[in-house]
Specification:
Mean pLDDT: 89
Helix content: under 10%
CATH class of the domain at 36-117: Mainly Beta
CATH superfamily of the domain at 36-117: Jelly Rolls
Radius of gyration: 15 Å
Largest sheet: 5 strands, antiparallel
Low-confidence stretches: none
CATH architecture of the domain at 36-117: Sandwich
Shape: globular
Structural class: mainly beta
CATH topology of the domain at 36-117: Jelly Rolls
Length: about 130
């Protein structure tokens, strides 16, 4: 690694930080540090699901299916990502949850990367 280049493997690196590859939570000296965006490589076994709905979301999100079958729950609708490359985008303030209908790999991009923001056990975003 040099000061501005990092080469890695998403599967291996994701396992070190709950799936997250890039965001404000990486050390400031790491090229993967970003105040603008967060990227996650999510590997989900069949039946894996979010424990609680996320409410009060402050970020915009994009989820892209790499493999498997993955359902995103949004207010009033379910979106099934079934073919490689299927994706869904939702904006700030949109509550959501998810369920892995099959073993799935999902790439998630969220922006901005909000320092101190975390989803609590009740699903609400907190600073």
């Amino acid at each position: 690694m040099t000061d501005s280049v990092y080469v890695g493997n998403a599967g291996k690196d994701a396992a070190l930080d709950r799936g997250w590859l890039l965001g404000h939570f990486k050390d400031a000296s790491d090229p993967r540090h970003s105040e603008d965006v967060e990227i996650k490589w999510g590997v989900h076994p069949k039946g894996d699901q979010r424990a609680h709905w996320v409410t009060g979301e402050e970020r915009t999100a994009l989820q892209v299916l790499v493999s498997g079958r993955f359902r995103v729950e949004l207010p009033g609708r379910s979106v099934v990502l079934a073919e490689q490359g299927d994706y869904v985008v939702w904006g700030r303030g949109v509550d959501h949850s998810w369920y892995a209908e099959e073993e799935s790999v999902v790439l998630t991009v969220r922006w901005p990367s909000v320092p101190g923001y975390a989803v609590g056990q009740d699903g609400a975003g907190k600073k």
